[in-house]
Amino acid sequence: MAKSTFIYVTYIRTTPERLWSALTEDAEFMKQYWFGTHCESQWTAGSSWKMVQADGRITDSGEIVEAQPPSRLVIRWQHQRLPELKEEGDSLCTIELEPSGTAVKLTITHTLERDRSKFIEAVSGGWPKIISNLKSLLESGSIALQEAYAGRCAGQEN
Amino acid sequence: MAERHDTDLLFKALADPNRRKLLDLLHAHDGRTLNELCEHMDMTRQGVTQHLKLLEEANLVATVWRGREKLHFLNPVPLQEIYERWIAKFEKPRLKALSDLKKRLEKSHG
Fold this sequence. Notes:
The structure holds 2 protein chains of 2 kinds. Chain A is of the alpha+beta class. Chain A has one domain: Alpha-D-Glucose-1,6-Bisphosphate, Chain A, domain 4. Helices cover 25% and strands 36% of the residues of chain A. Chain A has a 7-stranded antiparallel β-sheet. In chain A, strand 3 and strand 4 form a beta hairpin. The N and C termini of chain A lie far apart (30 Å). Chain B is mainly alpha-helical. In chain B, strand 1 and strand 2 (69-74) form a beta hairpin. In chain B, helix 1 (3-14) packs antiparallel against helix 4 (45-57). The longest helix of chain B is centred in the last third of the chain and has 33 residues, at 77-109. Chain B is elongated and about 70 Å long. Chain B starts with a helix and ends with a helix. The chains are: A alpha+beta, B mainly alpha.
């Protein structure tokens, strides 16, 4: 277990396939729950990955370490814009989808091999809002939050 | 699980001071074992185990196995949902009322 770890778990009433698509190739859908941000990748092991803000700036990049649709995705993820976060190097983001009754259990584990990582701290304010918006959008067709209010989101700058 | 059932579990889990203390302990330092948490709790090991079980059922605590050790992490997602469902909603009309009042006062003084 890495030194700085955050885990986010939620249950979303949808199918693993729909959730996988919402987290990967469906960029337009992603922008709706990620405050305008989306990710670009081929979504296969070894392919490059980048996170693009609404204004087109790339905030984070890396590569897909593991991709097993629709159940497991591992991204090697490095922040690119803020020097104090970039210098911490690669983080690892593991996304797991498991069917659970009529819902899917979504677990996102974000780790960095450094004690009290500033990057992990920075994304920790964003993940719950993004996940909560994603759940709301998939279940009810509308998002809960229009903007990210206080605190930085993963891949976003204030 | 129905939404009402999830919400009931969540508020029930938060309704106990010892369980809130466990959440504070995990917030200060995530990824702790049962033994580490017991050191800070003035109760039996069985008691702490019971409280952790309720927190896990409410999805406020997530666990990961590292070898033979079970690590406990605070899962903030349900708290975010409480914020959106039970706080932001009630806050908004008040903020709007305040902003309307400001506009009205500025207009009458202008």
